[in-house]
Known about the structure:
This protein has helices at 3-36, 42-46, 52-55, 62-77, 93-121, 124-144. By secondary structure, the chain is mostly helical. The protein is elongated, with a radius of gyration of 21 Å.
Amino acid sequence: MTRRSKVISGLFLSTVLVSALFAGNDEMRNNKCMMKKESMNMDKRHGEKSMLPMFKQLSLTEDQENKIEKIIVDSRENMETFDEAFTKDSFDKTKYIKIMAEKRDNMLKSQAEVLEKSYAILTPKQKEQLKVLMDLRKEKMNKKL
């Protein structure tokens, strides 16, 4: 390789790595912020498509709120983060790919477990109210179509 192509390759690689680190730093910052928020801010963390924001409309007791927050925090503690593929002086591409693939594959399973455990905390009346809220949301979404 000529000196010019080495310089260009080096600049390209540097750009890619800096972009990845910048994005990763932002993701880590977001994860820390999410874990610190109270359970009643679930709508900001899970978006409009999640059922968890509906839980805040169920007049949860403080105990129920605390239990749901613990369920969410526990589910996140078990997740590997991509930064584990980096060491002080190296990057393990295979480990990074493995972590990101597992994260994608386990996302749905993790969300289902959080919902299942959170649903089990609800009283029968709250479960009925949740079903009504889900039906209303479905109706609203059908009107948009």
